[in-house]
Design goal:
The complex is a heterodimer. By secondary structure, chain A is α+β, with helices and mostly antiparallel strands. In chain A, 22% of the residues lie in helices and 24% in strands. Chain A has eleven helices and 19 strands. In chain A, the strands form five sheets. A seven-stranded antiparallel β-sheet of chain A has the order 12-18-17-16-15-14-13, sandwiched between helices. In chain A, strand 8 and strand 9 form a beta hairpin. Chain A is globular, with a radius of gyration of 24 Å. The longest helix of chain B is centred in the first third of the chain and has 16 residues. Chain B contains four helices and eight strands. In chain B, strands 1, 2, 3, 4, 5, 6 and 7 form a seven-stranded mixed β-sheet that branches. By secondary structure, chain B is α+β, with helices and mostly antiparallel strands. Classes of the chains: A alpha+beta, B alpha+beta. Strand 12 of chain A pairs parallel with strand 8 of chain B, so a sheet runs across the interface.
Chain lengths: 430, 151
């Protein structure tokens, strides 16, 4: 463990006597294996992240199409800290609109789900079509010849800001950035095959939501799902029941810029293997399920082998396939010290009732109460508690080498996290 | 179908909250019939007819597995909970009962973990009144990080 003396000195200097903004970096002196604690708690960095990652240059997850099947169906959600609405238009297309009245800036849509013909802001009843166009405003032409808008007030100049939208085989992404790169290029050719393995055009069905507020920096969750080091150690439930072990067949993929990743693995039989369980104090050999229906795994043809594919699409979402359990996990930052984590569980329209039941039972492993995922929310808070208290300290991600993010045929590496911070430093000029 | 006595329901709920707040999970489990279904489900799912629950335990076996998870495998900061269970509205063998669960995690001040309503199916057994089904429907979709113990 070390503190970073160079970055600390520069930072103190900046916050003390200097008045001009100069390009300094908390990463000063850091190689690929070091992460300065300040990235988890500094509000200035946080605001730059919102701008650079959530509002520019990236596609952010907003919905599954099956959440808004009919014309007029909408879902209110967030991109970064900004409220948006995802709505099905009359022609079947999907629009993503700012949830911000063009008049007084009210977050006019307060319900999370619903169906409307037009959106009406309750404050002064400005009405918007499903594509965001302003349909009308009360008293535009005055009352009794008095007041009203100027003659040059044009409805078409006061619509809701409309985001760029990508509907890809049932999953919906949006971007505030009109110049964002094409979606498939954003995800990358390395990752598209496994992305399309789940989202191959089959109709999805919505099973429901879990939501939790984790009092940790949002990047810690991205790191958690880029970290194949921890599952076999932290998640005793996983280890014991053979869902995740360091000796299982596995592969890590990463896009060339280091943003997104996939951890791909194939389950083995469980039980003891001397090499991976020796010295792992969390391993409990004696455990077995009283009711095996909790983990009644049935192979699905579309898996084509791997039993788990965990994808991080930077910055906004994690896409989970763990055996028969499928979910998107949306990251909604709430300042540098917390984020909301929204789980949307889904299945496929051709699932049998038995398969739906299986997905619902396996959901016991995930979410805020999950026999596996609960561990993650807890340790992320532990990380936040100490990194924020020691802002000049550093974390070290040395497992598997000194590279800055490469694909790997095994899981004994933190390369995906190094890749994310390579991208982070490039994108923020740090 | 015989009517359920209000006092018996009150006693059952008192034992339920007491068992959970003392972390006596075996007693908690014993308040259910062997084939009972326990759910802790966000109200947004319940109201919209979406089947997902944060905890979904179908019978004593799964309840026992959840207990094993809590006691042997899960990693979480030490905490205490306090169930405050209100008065039930009875309708035949069904009951709706409001609850709040406060929690205290480590050295932090207490916070609200959940507010909601139990939707129960009750059954009289030779050992007393038992839960044949309980869905703890919580209003706050957002859980403050972790839901370790059942609501």
């Amino acid at each position: 463990m070390r503190d970073n003396p160079i970055a600390q000195a520069v930072w103190l200097d900046l916050s003390g006597t200097m008045t001009e903004t100069i390009p300094i970096s908390p990463f000063t002196g850091c190689g690929p294996q070091q992460i300065p604690n300040r990235v988890y708690s500094d509000n200035g960095l946080y605001l730059r992240e919102m701008e650079a990652f959530f509002y520019k240059g990236h596609w952010c997850y907003v919905a599954l199409e099956c959440e808004i099947p009919n014309a007029g169906d909408y879902k209110a959600t967030m991109i970064g800290e900004r409220p948006v609405i995802v709505v099905r238009d009359r022609d079947g297309s999907v629009n993503v609109l700012e949830n911000r009245c063009a008049h007084k800036g009210a977050k006019f849509c307060q319900k999370e789900f619903g169906n409307v013909k037009v959106f009406v802001c309750p404050y002064h009843q400005w009405g918007y079509r499903l594509n965001g166009d302003l349909a009308g405003v009360p008293m535009k032409n005055g009352v009794g010849g008095q007041g009203g808008m100027d003659a040059d007030f044009k409805l078409e100049e006061h619509g809701l800001n409309r985001l760029k939208v990508q509907v890809h085989n049932g999953i919906v992404f949006a971007s505030f950035d009109p110049n964002v790169e094409p979606f498939e290029q954003f995800v990358g050719s390395e990752l598209m095959p496994f992305f399309n393995r789940t989202f191959d055009g089959r109709k999805l069905t919505l099973l429901g939501y879990n939501r939790q507020r984790i009092r940790g920096n949002w990047k810690l969750m991205q790191e958690n799902i880029k970290d194949p080091y921890h599952p076999g150690l932290l998640h005793v439930f996983f280890v014991t029941f053979g869902l995740w072990r360091a000796d299982q067949k596995s592969e890590l993929r990463i896009d060339p810029r280091g943003r997104h990743a996939q951890m791909i693995s194939t389950r083995n039989a469980g039980g003891e293997n001397a090499e991976v369980t020796k010295g792992v104090t969390s391993f409990k050999q004696a455990l077995k399920l009283e009711d095996p229906r909790l983990m009644d795994v049935v192979q699905e043809d579309w898996w084509q082998g791997p039993t788990a594919v965990m994808q991080t699409i930077f910055p906004s979402v994690i896409i989970q396939q763990q055996v028969n359990s499928l979910s998107t996990r949306q990251i909604i930052p709430q300042g540098p010290d917390a984020f909301d984590f929204v789980w949307t569980h889904f299945g496929f329209a051709d699932d049998t009732p038995e398969m739906t039941e299986r997905r619902l039972k396996q959901a016991n492993l995930f979410g805020p109460a999950g026999l596996v995922s609960l561990d993650d929310g807890e340790v992320i808070e532990y990380c936040q508690q100490a990194t924020s208290a020691y802002p000049n300290g550093e974390c070290v991600v040395a497992l598997g080498g000194n590279d800055s993010g490469t694909a790997s045929p095994h899981m004994v590496t933190e390369t995906l996290i190094r890749g994310m911070y390579r991208y982070y430093r490039e994108a923020l000029g740090l | 179908m015989s009517d359920i006595a209000l006092l018996d329901v009150l006693a059952l709920n008192a034992r339920y909250g007491d068992a959970l707040d003392r972390f006596d999970l075996a007693t908690w489990q014993a308040l259910f019939t062997p084939a009972a279904v326990y759910r802790a489900q966000a109200r947004e799912n319940f109201d919209r007819g979406l089947p997902l629950a944060a905890i979904y335990l179908d019978g004593h076996g799964m309840m026992a597995d959840r207990i094993t998870g809590i006691e042997k495998t899960l990693v979480f900061a030490p905490r205490s909970t306090r169930h405050i269970i209100g008065l039930p509205v009875l309708d035949g063998v069904h009951a709706r009962t409001p609850f709040i669960v406060a929690q205290t995690v480590g050295p932090q001040p207490p916070e609200m973990l959940a507010t909601g309503c139990y939707h129960d199916t009750l059954v009289a057994t030779t050992e007393g009144l038992r839960l044949a089904a309980r869905n703890a429907v919580y209003d706050n979709a957002l859980i403050p990080n972790s839901l370790v113990y059942p609501l």
